[in-house]
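Aim 2, interim progress: modelling of the adenosine monophosphate-bound target.
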Amino acid sequence: MVKSGVGAGPGGDLAGAPAPACGGWSRVKGWSEECGVFAAIGVPEAAQIVGLGLHALQHRGQESAGIVSCGEDGAFHSHKGLGLVSEVFTEARLAELPGTLAIGHNRYSTSGSVTLENTQPLRVVYRGGPLALAHNGNLVNAREVREKLEASGSIFQTTLDTEIFLHLMAVSDAETPADGLIQAALQVRGAYALLVLTADAVLALRDAHGIRPLCIGRLGDGYAVASETCALDLVGAEYLRDVEPGELVRFDPRGMQVRRALPAAVPPQHCIFEHIYFSRPDSRVFGEGVDRVRRRIGHRLADEHPAAADLVMAVPDSSNSIALGFSEASGLPFELGLIRNHYVGRTFIQPHQAGRDSSVRIKFNPVAEVVSGQRVVLVDDSIVRGTTSRKLVRLIRRAGAAEVHFRVGSPPVTHPCFYGIDTPSRKELIGVLKSVEEIRDFLGVDSLGYLSLEGLLACERDGRRFCHACFSGQYPVPVNAAAGKLEIENLHRGAARGTQG
Ligand code: AMP
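Predicted structure of the complex, ligand included:
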């Protein structure tokens, strides 16, 4: 599935030393990828703070949530469950997690492998002391490493590749958890933003390419660490900086210490899809306000693909900022033409009565008074399979739109993500299967415009710092392109089924 390749791909040379690179397929329905992590250090009722932080990161994962806290006596307390943060954690539950140190995790998955055992943080006894670990990202050499570990006697308790970190730490000759974590990091490849809780500290580690985000905030006399700054905002923490690619930060109630765990990739390879779709627009991610980037995407999209139309509307919520940007640049009014139901739970059973567009209709409904008789620019952040977009267009036409001009804030998705974003195999990507004109026809729109890759990268302050493999196939670290998506998925499934997130 993965080349054990060392060194750099087109996107980023590693400064100096051997590359803790990436590679290998990750995504399949039922394979979790994106997740949210949060830590509170040196603050009273740390678990309550983490609960709030996870709540702010709910968009990064709705499958399960978990928190582990460390009490004054060094004993760990944990609670995990399937579902939303508000379902898993009542106030009473949080009150059962005492202490001034805590970490938490939200897991994302589309289906399958939704088990309590795969819920994070993972909790173990390490060299006589308690230890817990939470991971956002995707290890790509999970199979090889796991097989080696199992051959030498390791017994895994979950199907998460995240667990590999714990086993590698266990077999290391390191004297401290921090050293053990670094030794583990030197043996894995892929994307990870990691939090480790020990009896007296929290460790935060980011992979050498900085693919997934992780930021640090000052919180009273202590600290908070989060996938996105929107979670710092909610708990009242002041953003300090990001954990740098390849950096290990140790937090304890006395302060914060920094170590270089891995040589950082130069330039880093942040996931551009975080800016396009995944992160919240009120977050600062990779040093940039997400809303700002999306506005620029909208401006550029309007320049590249103007439309003779009456109004601009978004596919809410992820495309709102892009559509606003399109409106600013084009002068067309931004209208709320589609309303999204925010209360559609994951377990919602789709009634047959909703008809053939039920999956989309349950989530979105057009405002007939807004779209009727109008030439509409419909802005979405991305088209993956094209099925959602097609149904949305049908709904909008049925509501009376005179014309629909579809504008996409990213290029066609043509390659699956090896590093953690939930994209299907190439044979399901409409950007692979059809030309732009064929996609226009499939969607049933009057015109279709995708933002160019060049245009997208120009919307970033430094486009070289971003991984855009899903649009370009230029994987920043070597991957085994010869292996099909399915083959790689099966390898993953066979060995490290499930995954982190
Ligand atoms: P489709 O083209 O039907 O696969 O769906 C495209 C829609 O899915 C767009 O509105 C995107 O905002 C959204 N989308 C893009 N990437 C993802 C992802 N990784 N997970 C869930 N939804 C996504």
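The chain has two domains: 35-269, 289-472. Residues 290-304 form the longest helix (15 residues).
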